[in-house]
Amino acid sequence: MFGKKERELKLDDYVFTSRPDGDFTNMIFGTVTGIDGNKIGVNGFIVNPVGLKNKVSQGKAGDRSLEILKEPTSENCIFALIYRIEYENFTDVLDLETEKVEIISRRIFTILDGWIRESLSELINNVLSLPDGTEKDHAKRILQQRMENLYDRNLKSHLYSVCRSLKILTNS
Question: Final residue of a domain: which of 105, 137, 164?
């Protein structure tokens, strides 16, 4: 795009892709562990954004959510990770001829990896799903404490940005 040459995949590169799961897709991100022609080994996570899938099936989400579930990218997938997710370790071979694989930066990988490892989806979903009151205030305090204790600056900054846009850490 715009004259930028696609660079060739190397061992230890970080990648993002998706795989069909019914009407929607699950997201995969991980590290390239092997390369054999058009096939690459990847070790990472496969994420099923069940919370966003439920919102769409209930008619409580818009076109943007549907787009994210059908064609996730490393840039828009964070919106699927706000709601409840299920995930498991992923170790498999991807075929570059049949699967769209996106090379992502170490920074993006670290944010996605940290989001999963720190259970941030669960914490945010707790705040979003509770009615106003003491339980919701408690969930907000837990989320705030987790954010303050994150070591990775990029993850912390990204989480603050998401929380600001969702208006979940303000008192109003």
Answer: 105
